[in-house]
Write a structure and sequence with these properties.
- The structure holds 2 protein chains of 2 kinds.
- By secondary structure, chain A is mainly alpha-helical.
- Chain A contains 6 helices and 3 strands, in the order H-E-E-H-H-E-H-H-H.
- In chain A, strand 1 and strand 2 form a beta hairpin.
- The N and C termini of chain A lie far apart (about 55 Å).
- Helices cover about 0% and strands about 0% of the residues of chain B.
- By secondary structure, chain B is largely without helices or strands.
- Classes of the chains: A mainly alpha, B little secondary structure.
């Protein structure tokens, strides 16, 4: 018996999910952050964020097709984290890193928070 | 992503969904 592992399968699947998002195919929720709106797939949001996992496993909320986030959330920070969810790449602009980290805390994305923390400490030891 | 210095993070990136709640 043999087993063939396609080592780039996970990244190929993620790329296709991101293509589906950009073409708005089977997206099933709109995330409202202040006045900006983001279309996404609930399953991808749940897979990446503890907050969205909690929301969409709650039988009272799982059928919602629009979710408003706390107004303290920065839309740019959210956009960067949503992009990370669908690409595995986290863009860290100097001016946004605190907003990104705070948004990751809010979205309960602990591993991203830890990585941001280490990045900040390494780039600014003072 | 040319021009941006890319740091490879080998650790876990996201939470693990439990087999059952």
């Amino acid at each position: 018996d043999s087993c063939i592992q396609f080592t780039r399968h996970a990244s190929d699947v993620l790329l296709n999910l991101n293509r589906l998002r950009s073409r708005d195919i089977l997206t099933d929720v709109t995330i409202l952050v202040n006045r900006q709106q983001f279309r996404a797939h609930k399953t991808v949001l749940m897979a990446c964020s503890g907050l969205f996992y909690t929301i969409f496993t709650d039988s009272l909320k799982c059928n919602l097709n629009a979710i408003s986030l706390d107004p303290k959330v920065d839309p740019e920070g959210f956009a960067i984290l949503l992009e990370f969810m669908y690409t595995s790449r986290l863009t860290l602009k100097e001016s946004l890193i605190i907003a990104i980290m705070n948004t990751a805390i809010y979205l309960q994305m602990d591993h991203v928070v830890d990585t941001c923390h280490r990045f900040i400490k390494s780039s600014d030891p003072s | 992503y040319e021009g941006v210095n890319t740091i490879k993070e080998m650790g876990r990136s996201i939470h693990e969904i439990p087999r059952q709640d």
